[in-house]
Amino acid sequence: MYDVVLRYLARVFVTGTDRPASAANFGAFAKALGRDDYLPLPFNEVGPSGVHARIGLCSADATRLVFVRSESVDFEYRQPRDPNHGRPSLADFCQDGGELLSHALDFLEARAHRIAALQEGLLREMPAAAMDSVARKLLAIPPRWAGQAPFEWDWRAAVQIERQFGGDPEVTNTIATVKRLSGKFNDGAAFDRLFVAMDVNTTPGRTEPRFDEGLVRGFFGHAAAWHDELGQDVLAFCGVLDDA
User: Fold this and answer.
1) Euclidean distance between CA atoms 30 and 50, whole angstroms
2) Residues 6+ apart with CB under 8 A from 32
3) Whether 135 contacts 149, CB under 8 Å
4) Cβ within 8 Å of residue 142, ≥6 positions away
5) How far apart are CA 240 and CA 91, in angstroms?
6) What Rg, from alpha-carbon coordinates, does the chain have?
7) What's this model's pTM, rounded to 2 decimal places?
8) Could you read off the pLDDT of 160-206 as tens digits, one per residue?
9) What DSSP designation does 112 have?
10) Percent of the chain with pLDDT strictly greater than 70
């Protein structure tokens, strides 16, 4: 679907699992995840109680990152602007994320109370007229603007769908975002493209720690298929062909 993946994100929400950002904890965490080749990536998290040093890890090529935050553990993939870089599929990322985050829960001696899988990226380049056509499908434009196509816009919708991934049925938020976005890549190249994001996450309304390692693997074992179905629906609704 994407020409450029801005981010894949696998997240488990946990609380009360702070670990000091010490050399010993960086090493122990990497070993627990089976990522002895990952490098320490300390970072500061700003919260209501101030600034706190946290544990992070990253792969040698900086495409994969792990962050232990005050309320979650995040595993991310970010695609570099290298045409020779082979990026993973979302399915491969989710499988990897399910394993990594289940090991993280074991390391933290915790269960998660919420799980999320998200992807964000830019579609292939297309003519301005094609992006204007998508805007007309998704947006209601005020009459005074009827003669002009917006050069920047944002459409978002969220629904709740009950899903099952190994335990009791769970209500999940299923969210799609489409934007026309312009800017510059890190290498200075300009872009004007459609940005698409999709997010499936369990409801924040339930806060009891109930997701163990097996259920985390189960969620991410299904997540890519949920995203594929959502992506096909969104692109078809936009009138955009999926060349992937």
Assistant:
1) 26
2) 103, 104, 106, 107
3) yes
4) none
5) 22
6) 20
7) 0.94
8) 999 999 988 999 999 999 999 999 988 889 999 999 999 999 999 99
9) B
10) 98
Alpha-carbon separation of residue 119 from 176, 196, 208 (angstroms): 10, 8, 26
Mean pLDDT for 32-40 is 96
Q: What count of other Cβ atoms lies within 10 Å of the Cβ of residue 116? A: 22
Asked if 125 and 7 count as a contact pair (C-beta separation under 8 A), the reply is no
Helix and strand numbers, DSSP H then E, in the chain: 4, 11
Dist. CA 12–CA 111, nearest whole Å: 9
Three-class DSSP category at 153: strand
Name the residue among 123, 120, 144 with its Cα closest to residue 134: 123
pLDDT digits (tens, 9 = 90+) for 86-97: 899 999 999 999
On whether the CB atoms of residues 98 and 224 are closer than 8 A, the answer is no
- Give me the DSSP letters along 31-56: HHHT-TTPEE--EEEEETTEEEEE-E
Helical ranges in 109-212 per DSSP H: 128-138
Counting Cα atoms < 13 Å in the Cβ hemisphere of 69 gives 14
- Token readout for 165 is 């991934």
Which token pair is 117?
A: 């899988």
Burial class (CB in 10 A: 0-12, 13-18, 19+), 20: exposed
